[in-house]
Design a protein that fits this description.
This is Septum formation family protein. The chain contains 14 helices and 17 strands. By secondary structure, it is of the alpha+beta class.
């Protein structure tokens, strides 16, 4: 709405003779004493067919209602009110621009001019109208200028970035440098090189990787001080506690309870390195990894829910040993290093007892051993180049079996291997047994000599019931 000092006065009236018209909703300034009888137009208006109004019709697509500076014909009041409600502007503002207003005032002044005084008076009346700007255009121009200024400010201050943030308003970790680790979600697979374990990259799970993300660990559930902006970097022991307390549940939920507790995979935790922690990164990811010796993660291929989780290794692999417990470590080592056993081959039990989707029950350990007893010796003889060469190693042929809980998670693969039992564990082997360079507990193997043909060596002679073997000589009873 225009102000009182911007609105031109007509008919020679002073400012105090005009006041806003409230009735009718026109919202403009109107004379208070004059009214139209019989729909007559005031002297200072022009007919609807003249040039000014035609231009207004062309520009706005509307037809003006009478004099913009006088009162409106009674028949047109309702239409004016509708236009005011629809456009939110005064009728005179909606239908006239600056040039049209000048033309109208010049036309209105002509019939009333009686001489030089009237002409001068008309000149003076036109001056304010020329200076007056269209209110609607002023509003639109202000909006446009404001939008351009705001966009320029945001662009200059980095308000538009790849993260979708505006200016410096950030939430959580969007203010820190993002990478594949911080952006990872459940189902993503990450890997890294041995010389850069702190820089993981996302790869397809069908390619070799070291970690499969099972879920994001919500650090808001932890004590506030532990993950606050000024909190110190947690110790490795603390990260291990967080893993043991949370990741097993997340992994089990992710796999639907299908993680083999006796298989090659284990729950793992990925956490930021110390330099990232100092920058504000607090991301934690629970996932699945395949542990390897040296507290590292071995590479594996395929999503865990789609692969057999059984411990399996390539033929000829040597599996490390813990010298204190004499138990296998589960990690592949160079055969020239101490190890517990050497793999001769693997066997898929699904061919005999049913696959993962068969729904068949778990085969007992006895049933598995009976089936493997006809397979593993053949694999060993083939691996060592014949039965005679294998006998020179003095090693035993053994095989793994699948427990019932592993069977229910879908594990179906076992392996055959050669080793030598020792005091509740395994003897320490060094060297590739297939190449004849084997040491057992630091000694060269000493195979037993075979007896003459037809003689059994190592088998005791059966005795009749009630008799036991004894080397003590008993004298014959006296007569």
């Amino acid at each position: 709405m225009t102000s009182k000092r911007d609105q031109p006065m007509h008919d020679g009236r002073d400012d105090d003779e005009a006041e806003p018209v409230v009735g009718g909703g026109a919202g403009g300034w109107e004379p208070t004493d004059d009214s139209l009888d019989g729909g007559e137009l005031p002297e200072n208006t022009e007919s609807p067919g003249e040039t000014g109004e035609s231009e207004a019709v062309d520009e706005w697509g509307l037809e003006p209602y009478g004099d913009p500076h006088g009162e409106v014909a009674p028949d047109d009041v309702d239409e004016v009110e509708d236009d005011v409600e629809e456009w939110g502007v005064e009728p005179e503002d909606a239908y006239f621009d600056d040039e049209e207003q000048d033309d109208e005032e010049q036309t209105s002044a002509s019939p009333r001019s009686g001489g030089a005084d009237d002409s001068a008076e008309s000149e003076d009346a036109q001056s304010p109208s020329r200076a007056r700007k269209h209110p609607l255009r002023l509003v639109l121009a202000a909006i446009l200028v404001g939008g351009v200024a705001a966009g320029a400010f945001l662009f200059a201050t980095g308000g538009f970035d790849d993260l979708g943030d505006v200016g410096s308003s950030v939430i959580g970790e969007s203010s820190v440098k993002q990478n594949d680790f911080t952006r990872s979600e459940a189902g993503d697979c990450l890997t890294w090189s041995d010389d850069a374990p702190g820089d993981p990259v996302r790869v397809e799970c069908t390619k070799p990787h070291r970690f499969e993300v099972a879920g994001v660990l919500d650090t808001s559930t932890f004590p506030t001080a532990e993950f606050a902006a000024t909190a110190p970097y947690p110790t490795p022991e603390r990260f291990a506690e967080i893993r043991d307390e949370n990741c097993s549940v997340i992994v089990s939920r992710y796999l639907g309870g299908g993680l083999d507790p006796q298989g090659r995979f284990a729950p793992g935790l990925m956490f930021p390195k110390e330099s990232e922690w100092q920058q504000g990164v607090r991301s934690l990811r629970c996932g699945i990894e395949q542990p390897a010796p040296g507290d590292v993660q071995a590479e594996f291929t395929g999503p865990v829910r789609d692969v057999d989780q059984s411990f399996t290794w390539a033929d000829g692999s040597c599996i490390g040993i813990d010298k204190q417990s004499r138990q296998p470590t589960g990690g592949v080592v160079n055969c020239a290093e101490p190890h517990a056993f050497q793999v001769t081959g693997s066997v898929d039990l699904s061919q005999r007892f049913g696959g993962r989707a068969s729904g068949k029950p778990w085969p007992s350990t006895k049933d598995q051993n009976e089936y493997l007893r006809g397979i593993c010796p053949t694999q060993a003889n083939q691996a060592f180049g014949g039965a005679d060469k294998f006998k020179q190693t003095t090693l035993n042929i053994q095989s793994s079996t699948i427990s019932e809980v592993s069977w229910l998670t879908g594990s179906r693969r076992v392996f055959c291997f050669v080793a030598l039992p020792d005091r509740g564990g395994f003897a320490t082997l060094v060297g590739d047994a297939r190449q004849g360079t084997l040491l057992i507990n630091g000694k060269v193997p000493n195979p037993q000599d075979e007896g003459p043909p037809g003689r059994s060596v190592g088998e005791p002679v059966p005795l009749p019931p009630g008799y036991s073997s004894s080397d003590r000589e008993i004298p014959a009873p006296a007569g």
